[in-house]
Amino acid sequence: MPVLQGFVQQNAAMLGANWRLQFTDMSGVLMNMQSFEAIDFGAISYKEIFQNVKTILATPLESAALERTLGVDQSIVDRPLNNAAEVVVATLDAVNRWEPRCSVANIDFQPDLINGHLTVLLQLNINSVIYGTATPYPAKDILPIPKQEPPVTIPVPGPPGPPGPQGQRGTLWFTGDVTPDLYTPTVPLQTFDLYLHLPTGDVYQYTAVGDTFAARWSKIKGAKQNGVG
Q: How do residues 49-75 score in pLDDT, each as one tens digit?
């Protein structure tokens, strides 16, 4: 999305004597006209566009050598406060002609009847263009969104090999209404299998070590505290 950046009049004392236009950067920090007196030839992004717009609006038409059409028509100077149409036309013509990387989003005026000034409040819409050109980006993102493809599996020719050994199964839960020593499991038991005695809610754990079937079941104490119950 384009970045909407306002040039807002905030403090008249900070501005130059001839042009009463207040700049703010992307973070909202105020910049006065003296901030652009020394041209920054390394300026990029919106700062370069700010600097160009200031130069355009501060240059009288036909005053630039070798480029007489650069600048603003000075017939707008000393116009009556109620005659702002010429100021709008001159500003739009100059900015749109000489800085295509931005467009004027809004123009407003703040009259100073005591001093006889008409302050221009200019709001610019900064366009997303390729650096150093006026060519807009064809997409919102500079880089394409990477697309993840599933890996390509190439089958190995030849007959399949013999099946490998079967791994040990995981722990199973058993439930019943009798104590685990009287319970008849449907599959062979192995260490760490668990049994829930439904009438009492007790949980037992099986181990393969023990002299008798009953001795191989141990009741888990504090099952809920251990996260089992």
A: 888 888 888 888 888 888 888 988 887
Q: Provide the domain limits for residue 74.
A: 3-126
Query: Does 136 fall in a domain?
Result: no
Distance CA 204, CA 184 (A): 14
Is the CB of residue 217 less than 8 Å from the CB of residue 195? yes
Is 227 contained in some domain? no
Residue type, 165: P
Query: Does the residue 213 lie in any domain?
Result: yes
DSSP state of 49: H
Beta bridge partners of 7: 122
pTM check: above 0.85: no
3-state secondary structure of 215: helix
Query: Among 92, 126, 160, which residue terminates a domain?
Result: 126
Cα torsion 57, 124, 97, 87: sign: negative
Domain-embedded: residue 153: no
Over residues 89-114, the pLDDT tens digits come to: 888 889 888 888 888 888 888 777 77
- Mark whether 35 and 117 lie in a shared domain: yes
Least Cα distance to 122 among 8, 1, 10 occurs for: 8
Look at the block and give the residue holding tokens 């997303």.
128
